[in-house]
Amino acid sequence: MKKKLAILCYSQATLNMYYEQIRSLFQENLHIEKYCIEGGSITKEIIADLVLVPSFDAFDKVRRFIKKTDKVLFVHRTISKLGLDKIMDIRKGTDTFLLDESIEMSKQMVSTLYQIGVNHINLIPTCPQEKLELDNKTIIILGKSSYNLDGAKEIINIGNSLLDINTIIEIGVRLDLLYILNRQNIGKSYREIATANYGLSQILGITNMSEGQLDILLQIIDDGVIGIDSKGTIFLYNENAEQTTGYKSKEVMNRDGIKLFPQIPFKNVLENLQSVKEILIKINGIDLIVSVDPIIHSERLYGAVAIIRRFSDAEKKQHRLRAKVIGKGHKAKYNFGDITGESDAIKKSIEIAKRMAKSNSSILITGESGTGKELFAQAIHNNSRRRNFQFVAINCGALPESLLESELFGYEEGAFTGARKGGKPGLFELAHNGTLFLDEIGEMPPSLQMRLLRVLQEREVMRLGGDSIINVDIRIIAATNKNLKEIMETGEFREDLYYRLNVLPLKVPPLRSRKKDILPLIEQFKREFRGSFQLSLPAEELILSYNWKGNVRELKNYIEYLVSLEIKEVDIKDLPFEIADVLKEEAYDGIKYEGCDKAVEEELVENLTKDIGKNLDKYIFVLDELEKAFIQNKRLGRRSILYTAREKNIFISEQEIRNIITSLEEKKMVNIFKGRGGTVITEHGIRVLKELKRV
């Protein structure tokens, strides 16, 4: 269900502006309702997950309609850069009134303007409720104003106020929608908006930042940040930079950063336009780690930004730097709540996995392809003590041996032809303090299995071409769809590695053993693909009876296909041809009973005939009717069988049919579906029926 946001404003124009701004960022993922305070139009309780109000006096006027004050968010506002330019054009020293909807809001906006660099004029907050002595004064208004401004010397309309980035992010956090913002280029969205975070604004405004870059910046902004323009002048210097370097902001702002901090390779970065990553420097006797990146947009150099932190804090914040190197692809996105299913099989696996998450031991996840082994691995990581660090995943069967080795262990510069300048850290290093997920571990070449075993034993790695040992603290979660014990016997997989990995074994059940979960999964995938189709009863029965050899992945692919058809009701003829053909060929292969050979069946027939005695004909009749329905892809209920019996003058009661079907289910000859699902004969039942007819 979509979260609901209520926006309260004094004027309709501002209300519409905020609405469009929020809608453009959160799109269709948020339900927004607008409430205008003017004219007393709010007459009933406001029910929302979050209520956005412009000021306390606005809140005070409508607080009786808001029952839960913890759902209120007071906005931080700003203006457009175009509006800021108009203000900056006002002659220096001018006494200027700023007219806003209330005196509180006017004072807040004046504070914001001073923060973003308006310091050349004297701003005087005012509002329509106050009596103004215009006397040829300059007036700044925000959007259209109904106030009588006759007599003013100059009226400067800077446009409606806008929500600043802090408020937008707070909305995302409060409503659990921050991931929506992470998908977008927020820098682009805010390029034309002035913000009180002036240093951050500079970076966002002049850098063509990707999602990952913005995410990294927001994560590490609590480190020291020093920004210089293309001439070397410091324009950004945050509080953490003060604490890290020992220099106060007033001592460094607008000074030459290259001369003031010669230890930081600003000059080298500006000249070569190349980033410098994680070098050790010393400022005022303090060991620091610094990374410097050029700020480039549209092939034009605007300056450089340095991220600095104390060397003593390196271990604590190491995962953030690694996040910067490896990007968003190595974060665990899923939790146990994302695993859909109510069947006993999946509930048992989830319960076992939750207990494993509390441990630090290696885990081996087994299961068929498409069952969701990585989903379990991510959920385990997110519920472990390592959840604040990296989740790094690699498919051991997707890369050739040489490339897999360099990815896992990394390499030094010049280790081989084509090696990246400066070398590259391996996934073991990048997963330090976190989790390394080795998918398809059964495909790992034997030579690498030996190196992996050593890492598990010693907790240290050495890069290719390197001569130094790197200590790593990682948890290994491996997964495979192979029977590792079988390939151990052929020598393809090391026995000692198997027992190192299989400390905590977890088996993910196939979809055919958790058919209770198929319909909930279909609904989940329909929401994901924004589909609204309904399944006809025959189509639903076919889907429930299908074997699903590709498991959840195969089901998801089919639902995506059905959504693309854009039809309201999906019938048998609309199902992907693979399903229809398999069902015709295998005739409900998904519900067959495996494990009975001919000798067992013959013994069963012999025992069955002894048990049922004179009722043999009735058993054969019931099985015969079920077989006919089976061939027609139908399920039969007791009453349908009873109706047919009466037509054929066979004397059998509904209770007898119930008892026969129950007995047949115990012998694995039929499957009984709950409710009105009916009964279906199994392949084993068909074979036994043939033997019974021969008796």
UniProtKB/TrEMBL annotation:
Keywords: ATP-binding, Nucleotide-binding. PROSITE patterns: PAS (PS50112), SIGMA54_INTERACT_1 (PS00675), SIGMA54_INTERACT_2 (PS00676), SIGMA54_INTERACT_4 (PS50045). Pfam families: AAA_lid_14, PAS, Sigma54_activat. SMART domains: AAA (SM00382), PAS (SM00091). Residues 339-564 form the Sigma-54 factor interaction domain. Residues 210-258 form the PAS domain. It comes from the Bacteria. This is Sigma 54-interacting transcriptional regulator. It comes from Alkaliphilus flagellatus. The lineage of its organism: Bacteria, Bacillati, Bacillota, Clostridia, Peptostreptococcales.
